[in-house]
């Protein structure tokens, strides 16, 4: 079992504090979902876990099996088994999907045990077909010209190929129609095992209808204010965040779409 443990995490960007004491433990074999109103720090948490240099930890720790991630570079975190499916995947001209994913897979393997081209191609084709993606995607430049749905499927394809230990999915459902949502969810569910964990960031209950979490965490004001099971997400869908905020006695402003 591997454990990602976040303790009293405070993070700022450009001098503004965003995370104000996040505590969270994710073990392999578990599916966690983080929900919360806009601007509460959900994406900041994902970027900080993976080591984005713009996000500065001012207090607290993030540990993977007891090792402080602050001591690890981004590539070392990836090699250790962390994976981030980004909310807005970047387009990279000149690098094909095939080249990118093979390099990412081999980066986690010893130099004397690199995956050969034919073995990789068979694995890629199998996972591509599983996600209902076209043959042409392998030779296309990474995310260039991809629709929003194609980019999200491509992030899940990368996850299936790389086989991380802990995957952070930052709004993997945003912009997806119901058919694409089902395909993406199928990909995530296929990874479920005692050796894999997912931390999903989402605004919407509908994702959790297809990927049923073990734990649902609500973030407000830069910290996790409540944890429960799938029923908590259904409650938020029906009542919005304002009812929970008032119940907890929090002094947090919400936008109209969050209420």
TrEMBL record:
GO terms for molecular function: ATP binding; ATP hydrolysis activity. The keyword tRNA-binding does not apply. Keywords: ATP-binding, Nucleotide-binding. It comes from the Bacteria. InterPro entries: AAA+_ATPase (IPR003593), ABC_transporter-like_ATP-bd (IPR003439), ABC_transporter-like_CS (IPR017871), FeS-cluster_ATPase_SufC (IPR010230), P-loop_NTPase (IPR027417). Gene3D superfamilies: P-loop containing nucleotide triphosphate hydrolases. The keyword Nucleotide-binding applies. Residues 4-246 form the ABC transporter domain. It holds the Pfam family ABC_tran. NCBIfam families: sufC. Belongs to the ABC transporter superfamily. Ycf16 family. This is Iron ABC transporter ATP-binding protein. It comes from Fructobacillus pseudoficulneus.
């Amino acid at each position: 079992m591997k454990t990602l443990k976040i303790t009293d995490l405070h993070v700022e960007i450009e001098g503004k504090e965003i995370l104000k004491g996040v505590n969270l433990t994710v073990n392999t074999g578990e599916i966690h979902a983080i929900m919360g109103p806009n601007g509460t720090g959900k994406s900041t948490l994902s970027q900080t876990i993976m080591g984005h240099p713009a996000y500065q930890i001012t207090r607290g720790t993030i540990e993977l099996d007891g090792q402080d991630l602050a001591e690890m570079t981004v590539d070392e975190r990836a090699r250790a088994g962390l994976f981030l499916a980004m909310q807005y995947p970047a387009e990279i001209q000149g690098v094909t999907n095939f080249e990118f994913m093979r390099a990412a897979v081999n980066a986690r393997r010893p130099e004397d045990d690199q995956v050969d081209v034919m073995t990789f191609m068979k694995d890629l084709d199998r996972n591509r077909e599983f996600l209902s993606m076209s043959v042409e995607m392998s030779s296309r430049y990474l995310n260039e010209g991809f629709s929003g749905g194609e980019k999200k499927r491509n992030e899940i394809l990368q996850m299936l190929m790389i086989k991380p230990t802990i995957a952070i999915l930052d709004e993997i459902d945003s912009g997806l129609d119901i058919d694409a949502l089902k395909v993406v969810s199928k990909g995530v569910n296929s990874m479920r095992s005692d050796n894999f964990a997912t931390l999903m960031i989402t605004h919407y209950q509908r994702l959790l209808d297809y990927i049923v979490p073990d734990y649902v965490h609500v973030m407000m004001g830069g910290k996790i204010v409540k944890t429960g099971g799938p029923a908590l997400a259904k409650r938020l869908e029906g009542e919005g965040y304002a009812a929970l905020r008032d119940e907890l006695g929090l002094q947090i402003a919400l936008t109209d779409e969050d209420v």
